[in-house]
Every structure is written in C-alpha cells, then in structure tokens.
Amino acid sequence: MRDFVSTRARVIPPSGIRKFFDLALSMEGVISLGVGEPDFATPWNLCEASIYSIEQGGTSYTSNQGIQKLREMLAVWLQQHYQLSYDPYDEMIITTGVSEGLDIAIRAVTDPGDEIIIAEPCYVSYEPCVTLAGGVPVPVQCREKDHFRLNPDNLMEAVTATTKALIINFPNNPTGAVMRQEHLSAIADIVTDHDLLLISDEVYSELTYTGTHVSPATLDGMWERTITLNGFSKAYAMTGWRIGYLCAPKEICAAALKIHQYVMLCAPVMGQMAALEAIRRGEDEKDRMVQEYRVRRNLFVEGLNRIGLSCHMPEGAFYAFPSVEITGLSDLEFAEQLLRDEQVAVVPGSVLGKGGENHCRCAYAVSRKDLAEALLRMEHFIAGQSG
Amino acid sequence: MDEKDLLLLHLLEENSRISPEELGIMAELSPDDVNRRVAALEEEKIIRSYTTVIDWDRAANGGVAAIIELKVNPERDYGYDRIAERLSKYREVRSLRLITGVYDLQLTVTGNTMHDVARFVSEYIAPMDRIRETATHIIMKTYKENGQAFCEKGTGERIPYSL
Description:
The complex is a heterodimer of chains A (387) and B (163).
Chain A: H1 7-11, H2 18-25, E1 31-32, H3 44-55, H4 68-82, E2 92-95, H5 97-109, E3 115-120, H6 126-132, E4 136-141, H7 152-158, E5 163-169, H8 181-193, E6 197-201, E7 226-231, E8 244-247, H9 250-263, H10 269-281, H11 283-306, E9 319-320, H12 331-342, E10 344-345, E11 347-348, E12 360-363, H13 368-386
Parallel strand pairs in A: 1-10, 3-4, 3-5, 5-6, 6-7
Antiparallel strand pairs in A: 2-8, 7-8, 9-12, 11-12
Helix pairs in contact in A: 3-10, 4-10, 5-9, 11-13
Chain B: H1 3-14, H2 20-27, H3 31-43, H4 56-59, E1 64-72, H5 81-88, E2 93-98, E3 105-111, H6 114-125, E4 131-138, E5 144-145, E6 148-149
Antiparallel strand pairs in B: 1-3, 1-4, 2-3, 5-6
Helix pairs in contact in B: 2-3
C-alpha cells in the first residue's frame, strides 16, 4: 500500500511534550505548572448567558463573520481599551479561538516560498502553520538579556528580500515578556521600512501588569500592515469555548474570511453568546482574575529566585520562565526529572522554540496553595541535585 | 484608602493568617508598609476582627442556626439604633442587619438545639418593647458562607499540559 500521509503533514514536528504528557497522566499527585490556561472556571454569568441562549433555541450557524452584535460591541471595546479602530462589518472575523485566527491569517498572506519571521520562543503552532501554508518559517530569538523582548537588531539580521511577514506575541507565551510603546516603535520602523506585514497575537493583552497593553496596529503607519489577533480564552477563562477574533484591513480580512468560511464556516454560537456577555458584563470578574494572577506572579517569581532558579519578573501573561542552568541539567532533563522525582510538571523551554533552551515554562495559573507546594518540591529537587 | 489597601483587604478577607512578609510580596509592598497599612485599617475599624469560616454542619456539632426577621417600631430620635444595640448584646445573635422590605431587622441566631433557638426568640426577642412581629426561619443547610462555597463539586478536569 502507498504511504498516504502528505509530505507537508510529515515534515511538521509532533508535539514536543507527548512523552511528558503520558508520564504525568500515569502518576499520582502531580502539580501541573504545564497548563496554558486559567485555573478559574468561566465566570458564571457568561455560562448562564450561553445556557439561556441554548434554551431559547440558539443552536444554529451564525454568519461567517460571527454574530453582528458581538462584532459591533467588540469594535467599541477595542476602541475604548486599546484605541484600535476596526470596522465590525468588514474588518473583523470571530474565529474558533486565536488558533484558527492565526492559521487563516497566515494562509491569507503566504505564497509558496515566502519567508515569515517568527519571534521565538513562542506558542507551538506558529511554525507548523507557516509550513502548512507553504511558507518558510524564520525564527528570531528573543533573548533573556533583552527581557525576552524582540531586539530590533536581531530582527534586522533575519530580514531578506523574500521576507513577507513577522509574527509576534506580546504579552508572550512562554516568557511573560511585554513590548512597551518604545520597544514596539523600533520594530514598527523595520516593518514599514521593509514593507512587511505584522501578525500580532495579543491573546494575553488583558494580562498586562506593568502599564497598559499597546496594540502595534495603533503605531504610526502600522494599521494598514497589521493583522491583530485576540480572543476571550485567557482573559475571561474561556479556553474551552473557542472564541477568538481577527481584525485586519478590508482586503486582508476578506481573504481570511474566504478561508474561514470554507474550513470553519463560523465559530460556535454558544461560545459567541458567552463572549457577548463577557464584553457586556465580564469586566469585573476579569479584573478580579487578573489581580489574582498578579498576586500569584509576585509570590511565585519571588519563590523561584529564592530557591535559586533565576527568573525575570514577567510583565504579562501567566507564565514564569526561569533559567534551570544552576541545576546543570538541560531543560528537557530538568522537566523530566522534576516530574519523576517531585511530581511537578513544567514545560521544557526548548519545545517552545529558539531561545527556550535551559529554561522552563511554569504557568502560575494554579492556586496559591499549589504554587507554594510546587516551590517546596522544586527546592527539594534542587537541593538533591547539588547534594 | 488606595488600591493597595483594597488589595490587602481582599487578601486578608480570604485568609487572615497570611504573614506581613508574604502580604508584602503579593501586594508589592515592604512588610513594614503592610504593617502600617493594616494597623491603620484596624484603627479606622475597617478591619473589625480576624476570624475563621467553619462549616459547622461538617463539624457535626449538632448546632442549629436560624434567620429571624423582626418588625420593629422605630424610636423617636434613635430610629432602630437603640433596639439594635440591645439585640446585638446577646451572645446568641451572630449577625444583625437593618433591611428594606416587609421586615426591618434581620438576625442570625445560633443555639444547641431547635428548642434553644425557639426559646431564645420567644423569651427574649419577641417580648421586647417595640417588636411587633417575628418570623423564624431555621437554616436547613448552608451552601455558601462568607464567599466560600461549601458545596463545591470538582471543577472540570484539566489536562496536565497545554501549550
């Protein structure tokens, strides 16, 4: 029989944490700092709104772009929060999570052979999505000495005549890095000088602890060359509802919409109804969760540094990205041994791209009690290493 | 009162046993600053006391609690304040509030048995001057107290890793 698997599907790498996943599932009493989602349940009023809409018979397709009311309210919300101006009728698509938004954004702009620069370390789907779209992913490393921000000099080194676009994600998964206005301006200059497109994944934007989130599309000359991606998963604890959105100038949005309508049709209506409630009356609950993440960040990062895992204070998202160098282990060894010996699950940094080596990603979206216990176990582990 | 004071209040309301050092880390303050702020909040009687939320049903202590509603004739110059003050002196009265609606005052009363509670109401509360009517509701089960749900089912299963 022939091998039916396509070359494209064959070349994209499998998940780097499969074996950790299986190992963690086979063990008892694991504290997982490996989960990239809030530990809170979705605020109850959002669930109620969705349940009510189901009871009213709201179980059908929506328009391809998503429920009009949701887009209209989102447009107002984006203007008020980030000074972003997008027309809800032809510059916005409600997507099935930011994951889909990212995929259709990349496919809408990538021709075979186009180089797409990716700021790494980053979420695992960026490179495969570029590859599947026929593009060539070009990683650029964000370094610890730059607080894991994208350094304009490093970006310049990666730009070639065939570079089409740049993908960034700030606040960043996995480093928690935030690009402030001044940092983004330097990047924007390069993007405009070289006539590039920017794909900006801002799914952690509401989890910004220092200052307020700056959306790159608001910078001079950037709106017309930016695709802004965002969603409800992280800010409103809505990961399972699968609701994100893509905002872009009309022509790009229309191209992405064609892909969206053929492969997804529309985002789930139940999730869209919950998202509508999140925009209308979700702010207080969101603020409460963000405050709690900040408290946990302070406790956890202080703890990491105290036990010898040096870690920058992350300015956003809910990840700490400490160096494991002190243990003399690689990040993969560290993550595996920590899981086996102490039942604490963390993500080895190298599975998250260039620059992740010798670091591990610890999500502090777990209870303070579990964070304290995880720190005790990590301290014990480190003591065992040096002893 | 600023944002940091509010944060301290929320943290203490949830767990009053957190040390000043830990509170300082959480709220991005020095321990001294935490102590100063907490002392000021105590001074201003914003912090009233440090207590523990106990699920007495689970402790199987057999106690009984009731919500008592009272219709009260207010007093010239004092309104409800003086009668409320007298009521609040009873150890059995755990909470006392002035409310809108059909009744004026609402009390939470505890006792060892249903009989204790009934006797307390009929012998001490009902006969008081100015109290026109009482309604006693025995609490059958507490689902949530002081922001803490007692009936928590496990939340949905989270997978150990997601990127």
